[in-house]
Amino acid sequence: MPTERSFMFVAWRELRFARGRFLLIGSVVALMTLLVGFLSGLTGGLAGQNISAVLQLPGDRLVLQKPTSDSPSFSTSAISTDVVSTWENASGVDEVIPIGIAQSRGAKAGSEDLTGMALFGLPSGNQQRAQGAEYSDNELHDLVPSADNEIGLSSGVAEDLGVGVRDSVTISGSTYTVSEVGGDLWYSHTPVVVLTETAWSSMNQAMGGTGQPTVLAVTGDPDWESVATQTDTEAMTILSSLTALDAFMSEIGSLGLMIGMLFGISALVVGAFFTVWTMQRQGDIAVLKALGATTGSLVKDALGQAFIVLTAGIGVGLLAVAGFGTLAGQALPFLLSPLTTLLPALILMILGLAGAAFALRTITKTDPLTALGSNR
Description:
Layout: H1 4-17, H2 19-55, E1 61-65, H3 81-89, E2 93-108, E3 115-122, H4 125-130, H5 139-142, E4 150-153, H6 155-161, E5 168-171, E6 174-181, E7 186-187, E8 190-196, H7 197-206, E9 215-220, H8 224-231, E10 233-236, H9 248-280, H10 282-290, H11 295-328, H12 342-359, H13 361-365
Parallel strand pairs: 3-8, 4-6
Antiparallel strand pairs: 1-9, 1-10, 2-3, 2-5, 2-9, 4-8, 5-6, 7-8
Helix pairs in contact: 1-11, 2-9, 2-11, 9-12, 11-12
């Protein structure tokens, strides 16, 4: 009497003797994995160049000015002195840090080669120490200078300008000495430069701004909604504040849509292949059922085939993603991590097996009596 193990032998036999078909579908799966993985890595890299500095901001909530007819935005927010004072005096607030953010261009002193940069203004290192503030493992606060005539540069700006510690940089007509270099920090695809709060305010006014901080980093447990309503502001968590970055949602949404479509195409391609393959095997399936094979064993047999093909194809695709991603990272903002490689691969595996399982509905409907029909 045939056993379930003997029916599994059929799957391995088909993999050996129909190598062309399975190599074809395996190659398609590998290509889809490469496309999804590469696009995921590019999405992660672009997101990092948009939000990495914002994710380093301190506080439990970020407070932005709330326009009357629009959503809060980092590019238009300006917090007045009265609003800062109200938040500082609100019950339950432990700390309020005014932070200024603006876009500008600068150059190495004596050079005319300008580089775009995002200017962040935070309390000086001396002020933070006087207040007893401690920020461990925070790249943004590591760049905060101690004096108004100093600046901290992220690695991207330092590389673009070709400067290091103790070199001079000119920004909007003012010259500063580089006190710190480090941290691959970006804001809206622009590398970050950190000034003291006072220096940032003066520069912002020189650039035609108000000199008022852009956002407040508030720590504590106040009645967020009540204070926000009172001050015409909006208190947002760090993650929710990312929606206040111009073009962030549209950029990530567009790339996410493409990734989702690739996932759907992958499921359809795998499902279509195994649908055709199952239809071609319908007579053989009927014979196996006539010999005593259960529907469950045949489903396991077919899903085992699909799992082997998907594992091989996805494995090759992941190797290609790692190789091309490493090369692309030298010229493009590319993030190579488990989130952009293993997670998409897992989703592809699940969707591929789901597509294959849908194609196997023929197995459950096959009548073993057809094995004795005239077409045999």
